[in-house]
TrEMBL record:
This is Uncharacterized protein. It comes from the Bacteria.
Amino acid sequence: MLSVIALSGCQTATVTPAPVPEEIKPVVYTIKKGQHDSNAPFQIRNVSSLKFEATFNASAMYETAVKENQADINKLYGVADCHTDHHTNSVRFGWRWFNDQLEIHAYTYRNKERQSKLLGVVELNKTYTYEIVLADNKYIFKLNGETVELPRNCNGKGEGYQLYPYFGGDEVAPHDVTIAIRELES
């Protein structure tokens, strides 16, 4: 019995990945050296929750000029609340480079009183999901399976403006700081 094997010419196909749609790409916020904020646009928000991914790189490592300021909490992302300015009522995640690690904090103003609680530590160059739920009389923060609650000064949806990455307290960014953030469906 005779077997015939026919070989056809081999062709190499080039596969080009589909471009990532703009609505799912993260926004990279840069706080320039000597500045506090990233000059993001003013945006009104009306939300019952806020869910996003954030990635910090090595630019999140810093040393403050005044040693005591190393404990200051920088701000990541959140919203002003209760139809007031953010120093009266607001909710957001905070961050700081402290004890050679990147700490993430629950951070609020309630009737002009600031409060924060440590939520955990995140690794550089790794994406984490952050969530804030604006419930009646409380904020619920979620990160890495941890949950923290802080009191809220109003009920219903959060009505205010978007709060973007911010460096400081007292000091400005000692170098450019970049943070990638992508909002998710909540």
